[in-house]
Structure formats: C-alpha cells, structure tokens
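User: If you would, consider this record:
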Amino acid sequence: MKRHTEFLSWDDELLIRDNPTVNEGIRNYGDALTDQSLDLWHPFTIWSHQLDVSLFGMNPDLHHLSAIFYHLLAGLALFFCLKQMRIGKKVKSLPSIAVFITVSLFLFHPMHVESWAWLSERKDTLSAIFGFLSLGYWLKYVNHRQSSSYYLALGFLALGLMSKPILVVWPAILFISSWLNSSRKESVFKLGLKLAPFFALAVATTFITMAIQQADGANKLGVIQTRSLIECIYVGTNNLGLYLYKLVFPYNLSYNYVPLKTIPWRGFYTSLAVFGLAGMICCKYRRKVPILSWGLCSYLILLAPVCGFIMSGESNAPDRYSYLAYLGPFVVIAMVYHFISKRWNNLTRNTLAVLLFCLLPGWFSIQRALDWRTMETLTAATLEHSPDHPYALMHLASYKHRKGEIEKAISLYEHSLRELPNNRYNWATLGLLYQQTQQEAKAEAAYLKQLEYRPANSTAFLALAQGSLNRQDVPSAIDYLKRALKFFPHDKEAKRVLEKLTGE
C-alpha cells in the first residue's frame, strides 16, 4: 500500500516512531507520566500518540488523519467557548455570524496548518481543546455561578497543561475574560482568590518544564538565549507586529524561521505604532465595546512569552504560536464583520462570510498542508522562496544522508552551517560524514565545533577520544572520555574505554 505521508525526521520520528514509550501503544500508558521526549512533560500528548499507535500501528497517513480529527475537536471546543461569552451591561451573547467566522478562521487559517499537519505538534491541538473548554466552563461559572463549571474549568486546564506548558498563561486569559460581562464584575481580590488554584497549576508546570530543560546539564534554556534584554524587547515587539501581518498576508510560510541577525528597526517602530494606536482605541471604547480590549489583551498575553521577549526556541516567530494567540484577533474580525454587514440581506451576508472566512483561507490551507507530507516536500517548499535557509538545508541534508547520497549530504550540511554556524545539532553529524569519506582533519574540526555550541554530545567526545588514540595521544583521549562522563555518567562505551586506558 502506497503511503502519501511520512513521520518527519524533524521530531516525528523521535517522538513517535523511535520513542519506546509511544511505539508500544496505549498499553504503555504508565510510562507517559515520566516521559520527557522533546524536553517536555506532556503525558496527555503522549497518551494520544499511544492511542494512535494502538489503533493504526505505524501508518503515518492514519496518524495524520487523527491529527485532523483533533484539530476539528479544537474547533468544536472553541464553538462551545464562544457560546458562553456574554458581553457588556446588556449581557449579549456573541452573534451567530461572529461565532461562525471565528471558528472558521481558527480551522482554516494557513498559519494554523503547522499545528495539526506536523504530528509532533499534537500538543498544540490538545492544549487548544482543553484550553477552550476551560475558558468556556469558566465563563459559564462567571455567568451562572455553578460550582460544577468552576471545577470543570480547573480540571480542563490541568489536562491542557499536561498537553503543552504553553497554557501557563491561560489563568490570565480567564482573568481578563471575567470582565467581558460588566454586570458580573467582582473585585480583583475576590477574582484572584478564585483563580489562585489555576495560577498554582501554571506555576507548578513552569517549574517542572524548567527542571526538565536543565536536566542533562546541556543548559537548553541558556543555549537559545543569545540576545541581550534590550534586543529581546526589539525582537519581541517586531514579532508581535509580524504575527499580525501574517494574520492578513500568510504567504511564504516556512516550517522554521531563522533567528534575526540584526535588530529589526523598521518592524519595531511599525509594530510599536500599530499597537500604540490599537491601545488608544481599546481604551477609548473599553466600556462600549469591551471585546476590543479583550481581543488585544488576549493576543498580547498569549504571544508575549513566546514571540521573542523571553526565550522562545531557535525559530523566530514560528507559525504554531499563532494557534491560540489568534483567538482574540479572530473574534475582533468577526465582530467587525457583524457590525459592517448588519443591514445586508442574509443571503449576501452569509455567502460573503463563507467565501472570505471559510473557502478562501481553506484553499490556501490545503496548499500549505500538502507541503507537510514528507520532509522532502517540506524543505522544498521552504527552499523555493528561501534558497539559503539553514534549517531546510540541514533537513534536506539528513534526507539525502538516509538515501545514501553522502557527498550531496556533506555539501548541504556545509551550506547550512555556513549560514548558521552556531547550529547546535549537526556539527557532530557532519564530522561522522567527514570520517566516512576519510577527511579526518575536517572531522576533528567539526567535532570541536559541536562541543563549542553544545557540549553535551557523546558522539563528539567519543570520536575525539578515538582520534586522539589513533595519534597515540592517550592523555587527550582520557580527558575527552572524562568530560563525556560528566554529561553522560552512564555511558557504557565511554566507561569501558576509560577503564581500559587508566586500568581502574
């Protein structure tokens, strides 16, 4: 049977196919509680992948079909959430046309494709499902004061945090959402007390995540923080505007964006002006149209921790961070359309809404989803508009390596590392390829580069130790092996060779 998709070498294989916690199926459910794949604690995400394996085996086509199902579930959870919203003193529900537009944009916007088309981002769709359910039941509690809704909101937040730690900011979303309904306002103190358990869950998840990120001594948090505080402010502000731009013009999308090498002054000042103006408008109409303030605040709350102000990974402004953050702008767009089209006849109004917010973005999403079929199609789509993209070159090199095209793989790795020399993953891989082609001097230089950018790499230490032994330099070999065991104290090969050399 011909398969149309694959488990991408970019995390999918590591998380699903080659992960013993996942690849044995749901019977291994207990191990999900201690699994730290991709340097995260996300047991519910692991359970969902285990279930897929139990149902579909290792058929990537069916795993992708399951991913679409979870994305649709997130849309249904959003629908439930929006139906609970009550706005203003007259306690009005969101208009049906606004609910339809918001859900349609969430399901079909091209920026959201990464979150469901990339199997490793199952955590995005699951966190959205539980986040929307948590917000929906919280709003239901605010409106009707039913204790069952309160506990359901708390429980769904816990499940969301067990899917992806990005929901650590969700209690702040619950807080600002409590003020949409002006007839049900409470004091900040009382509201804070009610939300204290939600914040406690978020704080606990933050500490768990930080502990895992630092667990193996590789300093994963520090290694990706390469900018000063002032530079982070410039980049973060620029990226807030960049996401807003991509909301309207989602083209030339990539699965990975190269970190900015210079301060984006134009983007910084443009973004500053746009959000300054938006802030003034929201302040002026905060009582008359509170949904504007909610939309802006939710956008800033959900994006600020991941868009560059703080450490946000090695990709600048990736598409997946828009999955939750676009909720506020989507609602504002939907409400603006509602007010503009109030006096149109229903046929014209509804037809245009379907065309603009469902069919048009849906067509672009289908084109984008086709790029995610395989690593080759994904890298080709990026290299088509960014021929020097270091990550696309790196992943294409890995693909060529697996096909046995060694010289082509070396060329692509070299091109990639010229563009991004501080890449912490592939110097050791390039070193192995140099060794395979008898280029020993280049191999040693590559291994040293690997240790410069990420010291916790056993391959580099062992290869350098072996190279030292080949030159009869036993003291250097012993030093490399001891350094390896500092990071990997249970490495059997390093222990064996060291014991043989030292006689201990």
Remarks:
- Confidence is low (pLDDT under 50) at residues 217-224.
- The chain has 25 helices and two strands.
- The chain has one domain: 12-371.
